[in-house]
Amino acid sequence: MLFDFAAVLVFIVISIFFIFGTLVFSWIVRPSKPSAAKSSTYECGEIPAGDAWIKFNIHFYVIALIFIIFEVEILVLFPWAVVFKELGMTAFIEMLVFVGILALGLAYLWKKGDLDWVKGTDYMKDAPMPSDAGRSAREHRSEEKSAKGGSASGGKD
Description:
- By secondary structure, the protein is an all-alpha fold.
- Helix content is 59%, strand content 0%.
- The longest helix has 24 residues, at 6-29.
């Protein structure tokens, strides 16, 4: 009886050896030349601006969680659609209830304002921002036109 589990024990030992063996091997053969550039935060090839440990607004995470929730729920519809004809009218009504609950959740989030990317005027007021990050494109265009000597509104006032 005990001998039947010998294969499992051998598999576990080989797995542990493989995991730690590859870690040790990669530690031995890897190049180790630390530099300031390698230690800096990578921002898609751009020069890092500020500290990487700044406080982000929780709204970004809420939007991501809402997306994941609705994306996973929509994925439930695909297998259901494949076997829809075999399930009958009861499954159709159940799926209508399911989609209705999703629609109510979406309406609630929309009414609450959680789907708005920017909420209110105090949005991230404490976060470090570039000096012109809050300016709108219209303000930027009007400054360019006034610098060139033209009308800021384009003559349509």
